[in-house]
């Protein structure tokens, strides 16, 4: 079960956004990621609880940030309820999308599990609903993902397979690269892996 923490920053001006302390693991029905986020001041700033089924679909997502929370799942596309902590201002919505995304590294792993790309795969388009900080406002976006290469790196625990993906925002054409090993993001815009207490999990 990988456990560690990421540092988060604005990918454009590098403003620190805090840290995300996480643990995650594959299980008999899919994969689960749980994290707590702290602001740069060290104060609690939210949490992520994401569970995927064996096909990479989000069967449960619970996000907390500021005074807002999201409960969501892949139902009729994707469906979510956004509410304040008391639940008095809850709104339900739906979109014809494949999955969710946001600032947490969990969503990058989730997208790779959904797409199951190989270096021989063509670039694949995916529609995602992004929940933007700090109020978890939903926004639908389209991306193109391609697995450029997979390389084995020697470690004390045996070879570590690192996948290099190219992600393109289809509305702006902006491209960026992410590196993932198993269920851990090694590097991505706005994300740095600061500490990892155990090796990444490998998926069957």
Could you characterize the architecture of this molecule?
Residues 1-20 are annotated as: Disordered. There is one protein chain. The protein has one helix and 15 strands; from the N terminus they run βββββββββαββββββ. The mean pLDDT is 94. The radius of gyration is 16 Å and the shape is globular. It has one helix spanning 106-115, and strands at residues 3-9, 16-27, 30-38, 44-53, 58-65, 68-73, 78-83, 91-95, 99-101, 124-132, 137-153, 160-169, 175-181, 184-188, 191-196. A 15-stranded mixed beta sheet has the order 8-7-6-5-4-3-2-1-15-14-13-12-11-10-9, with helices on one face. The longest helix has 10 residues, at 106-115. The chain is mainly β.
